[in-house]
Amino acid sequence: MNFASLDKAEQKHQLIMDWGRLIAPLDDLVCMVKPPTVPHYHLAFARIETDLRSFHDRIYQFATFGDVVITTVALQLESVARPDSGYSPLFPISQRINPLNLGPGSAPPDLDDLYLTFEAALADIKARFYTYINMIPVEWEATLYQAKTPFTVYLRIMDAVATAQRRIDYFDRYLKEDFYQLYLRHLDRSIAVRLITTHGTATKDYGVEAVLTVSDRCRREFADYRLVEVSYKEIHGRMLRIDDQIFNLDSGASDAGKYPTLFSPMPSQPPDHRILDDVLHAGKTVHQS
Question: Global pTM?
Answer without folding.
Answer: 0.65
